[in-house]
Amino acid sequence: MATLEGDARAAAGARAGRLGFLLDRPEWLGPLMIGPAVLYIVLVVGLPFFLALYYSVSDITMGSRTLGFVGLKNFVSVVSTTKFQTSLKNTFVFAVVSQVLVMVFANVLALALLKDFRGKWLIRLLILLPWVAPISLGTIGWLWILDSIYSVINWTLQALGLISPDNWPMWLGIPHLAMGSVITVHVWRLLPLATVIILAGLTSIPQDIHDAAAVDGAGFWRHLFQVTLPLVRPIMLVAALFGLVFAFTDMIIIFVLTRGGPYDTTQVLASLAFFTGIQGGDLAEGAAVALFLFPLLLAVAVVFLRIARRTEVT
Description:
MetI-like fold; 14 helices; globular
């Protein structure tokens, strides 16, 4: 018995020694630490991506048990439809307009949160709530806020005398109001993330730079555009890149609020891929729609990161 226990302790000591040897070597420590993250990305992102590539060049549907190779037929068929062209235009409008608003409001909030005032912790909590709360629940709340009958916005506007009871706007039923509504909810959703990122960049600026600008007589606007914003530009570009990726790939807001309506005027590529592939049963064309923006997003990411790197170096 003593011999077995001694052998077990010796084996455990040998394993611990080998692990310690690996942890003490820099060329092994890095791969060991980053390995779980790489495995997670491969399983969660890599496998579905390659599966979508495989589906997009096949004729697979929800009810088929076999699939055949069709080449680029699905991509040609999808691009030629009016619904795809409308969704592509809506995707760019939705992403660009919402991201411009997010960056403007995020800078304003970040600059305001740099100041010390009473109740600052409560303001930070309220700003972070949209990002912490589940997006589906938050969007359902907005669905009630924008409802044509129970809308608190319409009741408030009527109480202020700005609209009449017979002229309530249908926020989700008129094309331009529906697009404005989904953009507003998306801005509400992404504003906390951009604010936190930009606030981190603002707090990293040395106080000596602000003091030097004040000594030189720089006013608020000159200080903002010639000192503050150029120094946080790399951080802003990273925040903008995250926002664009979310805007191009997220479909929850569209799905809950409008389902692409009215008349596909709020349909984006992400929601079109879902409705085509999952609800419509055509997995091949749905995969083709989902993959269409991959080269574009990759190019945007490379350009943004290069600009951020050059700005940071200079």
